[in-house]
Amino acid sequence: MAKQINVALIGNPNTGKSSVFNILTGLNQKVGNYPGITVEKKQGTCQLERNLKAHIIDLPGTYSLNASSLDENVVIELLLNKKDKDYPDVAVVIADIENLKRNLLLFTQIKDLGIPTILAINMADRMKRKAISLNIKELEKKLGTKIVLLSSRKKTGIETLKSLISNYNSLSLTPCINSSKIAPEYFERLQKTFPNQDLYKLWLVVTQDVNFGKLNRKKINGIQPFQTESITNLKRLQQKETIARYQFINDTLKETLSIDSKNAKDLRSRFDKILTHKFWGYVIFFSILLLIFQAIFDWSTYPMDFIDNSFTLLSEWLKINLPPGVFSNLITEGIIPGLGGIVIFIPQIAFLFLFISILEESGYMSRVVFLMDRIMRRFGLSGKSVVPLVSGTACAIPAIMATRNIENWKERLITILVTPFITCAARLPVYLIIISLVIPEGRVLGIISLQGLTLLILYGLGFAAAIIAAYTLDKYLHVKSKSFFVIEMPNYKLPLLKNVGITVLEKTKSFVFGAGKIILAISIILWVMGSYGPGDFNQAEEIVLQQTEQQNLSQEELAIKLSSFKLENSYIGIVGKFIEPAVRPLGYDWKIGIALISSFAAREVFIGTLATMYSVGNDEVETIKERMAAEINPSNGAPLFNLASGISLLLFYAFAMQCMSTLAIVKRETNSWKWPLWQLLSMTALAYIVALAAYQILK
Amino acid sequence: MLSIASLKIGQRAVIKDFSVDVVPLKLLEMGCLPGNEVTLLQEAPFKDPLYLTINGSHLAIRKEMACKIEIELING
């Protein structure tokens, strides 16, 4: 039987760690979550030798083992827990040749844990251009490790890395730094209290909570937290440790690394001069934003139309070819229209993730953070809030997770609270269909389409709401937090097609499946509720025949009367009628009311719900839009979706907090129900008031 | 005493000391330690934040923090 070993890839952010992971594992990887938290867990397998397989974990990027966020904490939790099934047999620390000094800090910490550690120096292809030379043999000796020069771009060094991993048993375990030197007296006491434990591990256990206290951590290997020092003193000791490590690193590299800065070609500073320019930097950033929106609204309409038509055809085909019965009805009237509602916006989500991952991979996103920090701070946000706010145009869930690298808790909390105002991809199908129903097709000044303009205004509105809310929260929210901000400015890189491709694929997949599950469940519930009912529902035929006896209706008219009678008396109709008084002032009928309520699970459910409700008992197969356009408001005989009710709906969706998954993420990230509940109530109240005002003014 | 916030673009200096009690650990980890060299590369409008290279690492910090890092200029 083939042997399998655990390999952990560890490294600073921006070292190309994920590229190395992608090369090693190819598509033999899966992305999940660590149990109970929303940190992405990437793992895969790689065949090292004929009888040796590696199970590879790509750990979140971190600058050190002193965790200050949930993501970084994952790294240390794993490395401290020998009993974890993923505990590495060997660790590969990925370093970037240009930041070797800083990267070695993490390396020495991991080496000192007594784990066999390989140093993989990435981006070695840049050494020549940067006039860097490295005495590998000497460095290997000083660090007590094996070193491999890699280039994930040119795919060199991978085979050497694999063979080093296979021979992990021959790696030295001698620590780089004798940890008790950091604070001899303190470490002596530690040793006395726990005579049989590894000192450096103990030290990490003790200090883990100093920076990162919010976690309810289980005792590791039965060690009681030992903390006889004040937090301030422990922090001082951590500083001493960092300084001691840097001393070791500086001494080591002085003899092994040389950079001839005169001969180095510096593309970075030339790019930075333009991209972080006080004027052109902003012009370029806003042009890029415009390009992204152009892609989402214009280029993706073609695949979207195609998907919409395909689903209609599929539904039609199934209706003809499936044997008639309850189950077939469930598929053609419940599941297919419901799924169509989500599949249709795959193109837009993919485009968004494509752009965001290119911006991140290229190193440009850090420049945006740099440019925007001062401006964002006026609204109680951080420059780092730009990333969540831009990602929020795709989906609030990854966006809220992206707030983790905001150091200041108040800035982070405000970012989390206002991100759901940003127009996410799930609002888009709702916007698009309502806009196409109620906004005329004309053009302003002959160029700008009215419909496009409306969409742009809605995006602007979402952004404005987020900014205003942030400003207000900043004024009235009293949260204690220390202000501190640091961001690495990585070198520019041409994004690797493979990395971008895998990111887009993974994100789109998890988004669609995540939302797909909810939509599927809701469309089934709705279909059942719409197809069954109490009392009158079961005598529908007799009642309708009685009512229409005198009217002399054709067969077709009778069928329509019957199906609408059935829908109104089904369970869903009863619920809808009950809530109608609440939604009528906004210009909606009870069906929209139901769609609105089911949208609280996820916004994109709206269209699926209407599609399901309109197709229950309706044999005609039409596109969703045709069904909606045909709806008549029973009170005045005019189309149900008119300018007033349409605008009111658009505004409701712009402001309301309708997404269970976002609420769940906010709960996890803020560790309390207080904030998600607060979001739900205040955003929805705002939405109701604005929609009410709009309808009453416009009608 | 000069601080990082008083650097002009392109100027080099050596970090001397911090005028805060507890220096954020992250800053130290990024290489911002006494004795290391610092250069100001770019500044955002209103000189905030500042884009620096410290000990070979490229990073940006806010003016607020930069004021608290004392330096000594390197001539030439």
Molecular structure report:
Chain A folds into three domains: 3-185 and 236-259, Rossmann fold (3-Layer(aba) Sandwich); 280-476, no CATH class; 498-698, no CATH class. Chain A is built from 29 helices and twelve strands. In chain A, 58% of the residues lie in helices and 9% in strands. In chain A, the strands form three sheets. Chain A has a seven-stranded mixed sheet with strand order 2-3-4-1-5-6-8, sandwiched between helices. In chain A, helix 12 runs antiparallel to helix 25. By secondary structure, chain A is α/β, with parallel strands linked by helices. Mean pLDDT of chain A is 85; it is low at 213-223. Chain B has helices at residues 25-29, 63-66, and strands at 2-3, 12-18, 37-43, 50-54, 57-61, 69-73. Chain B has a six-stranded antiparallel sheet. Chain B has one domain: SH3 type barrels. By secondary structure, chain B is mostly beta strands. The model of chain B has no long low-confidence stretch (mean pLDDT 91). Chain B is built from two helices and six strands. The chains are: A alpha/beta (699), B mainly beta (76). Chain A binds chain B through residues 63-64, 66, 68, 98-102, 105, 211, 232, 235-236, 238-239, 242-243, 246, 268-269, 272-273, 276, 278, 366, 369-371, 373-374, 383, 407, 483-491, and chain B through 21-31, 33, 41-42, 44-46, 48-49, 51, 55-62, 64-65.
Tell me the helix content of chain A: 55-70%
Average per-residue pLDDT of chain A, rounded, comes to: 85
**CATH homologous superfamily name of the largest domain in chain A?**
P-loop containing nucleotide triphosphate hydrolases
Largest interface: A-B, 42 and 30 residues
Looking at the structure, the CATH topology of chain B is: SH3 type barrels
* Parts with pLDDT < 50 across at least 5 consecutive residues of chain A: 213-223
How big is the Rg of chain B? 11 Å
Structural class computed from helices and strand pairing of chain B:
mainly beta
User: What is the number of beta strands of chain A?
Assistant: 12
CATH architectural type of the largest domain in chain A: 3-Layer(aba) Sandwich
Describe the oligomeric state of these chains in a short phrase: heterodimer
Rg over alpha carbons of chain A? 30 Å
Strand line-up in the sheet with most strands of chain B: 1-6-2-3-4-5
N/C terminus separation of chain A: 75 Å
CATH topology of the largest domain in chain A: Rossmann fold
Structural class from helices and strands of chain A? alpha/beta
